[in-house]
Amino acid sequence: MKNSTTLLAIVISGLLLISTTTFAQYQIGHTTITFQDPNRGNRAIQTEIYYPATTAGTNTPAVQDSFPVIIFGHGFVMAWDAYQNLWEEFVPRGYIMAFPRTEGNMLSTDHQQFGWDLQFLIVRMQTEGATFSSLLYGVVASETALMGHSMGGGAAFLAADSLSTNGNTNLKTLIGFAPAESSTNGVSSINSALSVTVPSVVLSGSNDGVAPAVDHATPMYNNLASSCKTFINILGGGHCYFANTNFNCDFGESTSSTGISITRAEQQDITYDFVNTWLDYTLKGDCNAFAIFNDSLSLSSKVTFNQTCVPNPVPTINYTSGQLVSTVTGLSYTWYLNGTPIANSNQLSIIPTQTGNYTVVVFFQDGCSEISAPYSFITTLINEHTTTTFSVYPNPAKNKVIINGANELVIEMLQIFNYAGMEVTNYSLNDNVIDVANFVKGLYLLKINNQWIKLVIE
Fold first, then answer.
1. Is residue 164 a contact partner of residue 171, using CB atoms and an 8 Å limit?
2. Any domain includes 20
3. Taking the model in full, what pTM does it have?
């Protein structure tokens, strides 16, 4: 393994974009495993696996780190080795790629079975990473992508349908290279797209005559139920150029596609520019990569695109019932006071106890986060430096609050205010004990004989 910093310069529409991307460059290891699916009569699924290795070669030790997984479906009568360009691009960047070799027979190809093979491998690769005797023990991350070309792209839609419906949490994205409609045994990739909710990218060459986008990739894209999906049309591109030279695919393209005006290398470079940033975003949680992905879409003169992508909302802060509340719901939260994290503040709301500027960071499903504008909270009803002869406990409290005095205690007046300045009346006082069981949780002020005490109700 070597760490390197690559200076990426892209000229798009006359503009020079320069970004510095630091990533690990790994050697490529290879192993072959034949898995068996017990739910389909122990169906054998011979799989070629490429992984980050300490030394390039077959069955060499894997780098001891955690790597996301890409499950790849090959095209019709195309062998896995036609996609060497892909594993040589993605594996050195820190991904494991698995290529099932099933359904390669021209006369008996079953798209549904191939989709089930891809689906099976999503789960089975996790088991492989947890098996002590496996070459991949301890290095398989949970984040997984489904990717496929042509027939394999359509089969990936079939697999993503079942995984999304069953609530699989490993599948993070679906990527189709010129996906072709799969319709054997009554299934349909176009119909399956209606159930696919993971973020997705569909790429197609504008001059693809083998699986024209209008009949294949476009209706799949349109039907996707994902809240974030992108269709990329590579201008002058073809069907087979996503892979290396392959006799069967190239022969089919020679009889059906016309007007291809870019080279295979050019189409693959365009593909890598978008897919690398998309994978970094969806599988590695790199939120900056998503911004680069979208900037490249907007500025590139080599593609046209469609996109439906709902951005993560930016939270604001409301003050209600003695609490500061985020207006946006996420997976988790961190609150800050004057730029310093507040301990144990991982909830949608907090009870402010000090004057200052409060902000909240909300973390979302995609691993990205958004931060609110500061909310200025001021304690106006109390001089925080005033010394009082009274104390209350417990504080914070839930049900009962006991009032203590330094000397013999005589309560001549007791008032309770919330931090909106409104006096609270729904309490009782018996033997210097206040019943606060019915209070809304938040910050309150007790005025005892003209002395102020802060009280937090949890």
1. yes
2. yes
3. 0.76
Query: Distances in Å between the alpha carbon of 128 and those of 32, 122, 138?
Result: 12, 11, 9
Phi, psi dihedrals of residue 454, rounded to the nearest 5°: -80, 140
Could you identify the residue written with the tokens 């993605």?
90
Whether residue 346 contacts residue 322, with contact meaning beta carbons closer than 8 Å, is answered with no
d(CA 392, CA 447): 12
The CA-atom distances, in angstroms, between 451 and each of 183, 210, 334, 423, 437 are 79, 83, 34, 15, 23
> How far is the C-alpha of 183 from the C-alpha of 111, rounded, in Å?
7
Q: Report the alpha-carbon distance of residue 336 to residue 338 in Å, rounded.
A: 6
According to DSSP, the residues that pair with 319 across neighbouring strands are 324
Q: Which residue range(s) make up the domain with 214? A: 2-309
Residue 409: which CATH number? 2.60.40
| 103-157 residue pLDDT tens | 998 888 999 999 999 999 999 999 999 999 999 999 999 999 999 999 999 999 9
Instruction: Please compute, for residue 247, the number of CA atoms within 13 A of its CA located in the half-sphere on the CB side.
Output: 0
Let me know whether 129 and 272 are in one domain.
yes
pLDDT at residue 3 tops 80 = no
Query: Residues 6 or more apart from 47 whose CB is under 8 A from it?
Result: 32, 33, 34, 35, 98, 99, 100, 101, 121
Query: Is the same domain home to 348 and 403?
Result: no
| pLDDT tens, position by position, 418-436 | 766 678 878 888 878 888 8
Give me the sign of the Cα torsion angle 249, 255, 258, 262: positive
Q: Is residue 273 part of a domain?
A: yes
385 part of a folded domain:
no
Q: What CATH number does the domain containing 276 carry?
A: 3.40.50.1820
Contact present, 210 and 256 (Cβ < 8 Å) = yes
Tokens of 449: 């004989």
- Which two structure tokens, joined as six digits, stand for 211? 């699986």
C-alpha–C-alpha distance, residues 377 and 443, integer Å: 12
